[in-house]
Structures are given as C-alpha cells and as structure tokens.
Write a structure and sequence with these properties.
Layout (H helix, E strand, L loop, with lengths): L1 H9 L2 E5 L6 H16 L3 E6 L16 E2 L11 E5 L10 H4 L5 E5 L10 E4 L6 H11 L6 H14 L10 H11 L5 H9 L4 H12 L2 E3 L4 E6 L1 H6 L10 H5 L7 E9 L2 E8 L4 H7 L3 E2 L3 E7 L2 H18 L11
Parallel strand pairs: 1-2, 1-4, 2-3, 4-5, 5-6, 8-9
Antiparallel strand pairs: 7-8, 9-10, 10-12, 11-12
Helix pairs in contact: 2-4, 2-5, 4-5, 5-6, 5-7
The structure holds manganese (II) ion (MN).
The site of manganese (II) ion (MN) has 6 residues, from loops.
C-alpha cells in the first residue's frame, strides 16, 4: 500500500484502465483514482475498450474515453490497471505494455497481477475498497465525486451489501462514503433497477426457459444471439441475467449462456457455496469463488451441453474430474 502510494506520487501522467465490459466496481475504481490523482495535481485520463453502461450517471463517467482499437499511450504516461489483470482490458491490452510504468490493482483470484507494481488482494470485497485505502494513504480528501464512484463500486460487487463479502469493514467504509454526500437510493436504483423494457421482456423469456438438474442444485438457461435480436436487447448489457437463475430456492450453481456474437458464448457462473471460480478457470475464464465467468467460442448448444455436464459432475463429486481437465 505504501509503495503504491509512493509510486503514484512519483509520476505525473496517468492512464487508468478497467476491464472490458466495465461493471460498477471497475468504473468506480477508475473514477475514484481519477479524481484522487487530479486532486494531487496529476494529469490523468481514463480509457475503456467497451462503452460505458447507460444506466449510471456518476460524475466523471463521461470523461472515460472509449477506445475500441489501437490504444497507444504517450511515452511519459504511466498505466494503472484496476479490477483485472492487464490481459483482461480487451482492445487496450496490447498498448498497455508501451506505457512508462505499469501499476496493477485488483481483487480477483487466480492471478498475481502483472506490472512494475502489483497490488492484488482477493480478500477485499471490491477494488473500490482498495482504491479507498490507497486514497486515504495518499491523504486525498474523499469528496462527493470520489465517494459516489467508490460507493457505487462497492454496491456493485457486494450485490448491494448482500453477498458474503459484506464485512463490517466494508459497511464502515460504506458509512464513511455516505458521510461524503453519496445518494444511496440513486446508486442502488441505477445499478439494480434501471433496465430497459427490452431486457425485462428478454428476462421473461429466459425465466420461461430455465432448466435444472442434480435435484435442482444446477440451474441454467441459454440465450442465443437470435433471441437477443428478437427482443432487441443488447447482449453485452445482460450479464446479470445469471442472478435470476440463482434466485431459485434449490440453486447451488447457476449458469447462464449468452451468445453475445454468433459463436461467441459468455458463460456466467454464480454459486451459493460451491467454488465456481474453478469451474470458470477450467473453461479458460476466472473471477471469484461465488461469481465467475468464461468466454467460449463455439456452437451454443454444444458449449452448453459440455459446461453443464462438467458442472453436473463437479456438483456430484465435489471436484473437477481428470477426464474433464482439458483447457479450452
Ligand atoms: Mn471488482
């Protein structure tokens, strides 16, 4: 923590990058650092491989540059990658190595970080929590802009202070951020209750097609590219579909297969206690113990059948069998 703070003080120009398909924690971490570093008189910008979700209205979001291809930092720019390892920044990834200095701040399991300076702590509920600690270490005044972003990030990654990562420390930080003028109702509504009608119709379809196995412990649904088109829903903005599969009372493991582009399947895993990070990693993805994902190329039905069979065996045996232990 002290070393990161020292490094952030040393350099003057920063580019802050989050992961592809940014979520509230990724965006909150970016914005918190951005406003904090600006307060210290640093020159700073934020870039994203993918567009920013429309439902959020946090201060500074409009400053994030959407760079779908050919990101090229200036020779004196230091890169800060938050809420992922540098490889998961999408189209930004190739350019990242050209920066002057690379800092990686994250809380995802399964990687040790990459860069000149790395801070990865999987025990933290959100990268926004880590950023909060860094800003405190730097002596930054947590103003309303910073507080809104970090609070939003924490709300996102704790499911609104409901998941197992909601520690008393997280609540204390949440309380401190509320004292800085955050509007908790606005943030909660933007994250959890501001869906386009097209999504709600798609959700109706998805719920209607839920499947289950292993005495209801395994619940899943597949949504094809044609389904997304039919409901006029943006496939990329629907990763939270998996939360609904998890709501079934018997669910141990929920899986949603989204064909976001023809032949490109995003698999989302959620669990109540089983370690689904292992499952995701088995298919080339990663994430957290109870929330993870993977991207698999192939035919939707074939991919779904293979993943569900692996998940089925995993639930029954409590481990991934050798036979299934090939990389994808
Ligand atoms: Mn996160």
């Amino acid at each position: 923590m002290k070393q990161i703070a020292a490094a952030l003080k040393e350099y003057d120009n920063y580019v802050i990058v989050g992961h592809e398909h940014p979520d509230p924690d990724s965006l909150g971490s970016m914005l918190g650092l951005y406003f904090g570093l600006k307060q210290l008189g640093k020159s700073c910008r934020m870039v994203s491989a993918d567009p920013i979700p429309q439902n959020l209205s946090w201060p500074g979001l409009k400053c994030i540059e959407h760079i779908p291809t050919d990101f090229e930092p200036a020779h004196d720019e230091c890169i800060i990658v938050v809420d992922c390892e540098p490889a998961r920044t999408g189209s930004i990834a190739p350019g990242i190595q050209k920066g002057k200095y690379l800092i990686n701040i994250d809380h995802h399991r399964g990687h040790r970080g990459t860069g000149d300076m790395v801070y990865v702590d999987p025990s933290e509920a959100a990268t926004s929590v880590i950023v909060y600690r860094i800003l405190k270490e730097l002596g930054v005044q947590i103003d309303r802009n910073i507080a809104t972003a970090l609070y939003g990030g924490i709300v996102g990654d704790t499911g609104g202070f409901r998941y197992a990562n909601t520690t008393s420390e997280v609540l204390r930080i949440g309380a401190a951020l509320l004292d800085c003028g955050v509007e908790p109702d606005t943030i909660a509504r933007e994250i959890f209750a501001s869906q386009p009608l097209s999504f709600m119709k798609l959700l109706g379809f998805a719920l209607d097609n839920l499947q289950q196995d292993v005495d209801g412990k395994l619940v899943w649904v597949t949504v094809s590219y044609d389904d997304f088109k039919r409901f006029n829903a943006d496939p990329v903005q629907t990763d939270h579909l998996v939360q609904y599969a998890r709501m079934v009372d018997t669910t141990e493991v929920a899986v949603v297969f989204r064909e976001v582009e023809p032949g490109e399947i995003r698999v989302g895993f959620r669990a109540n206690s089983v370690d689904v990070e292992q499952l995701a990693r088995h298919f080339g993805g990663g994430g957290h113990r109870l929330a993870s994902g993977a991207k698999i190329m192939g035919d939707l039905d074939t991919v779904a059948r293979e993943v569900i069979e692996t998940a089925r065996q995993y639930l029954i045996r409590g481990e991934l069998s050798e036979r299934n232990h090939k990389r994808h």
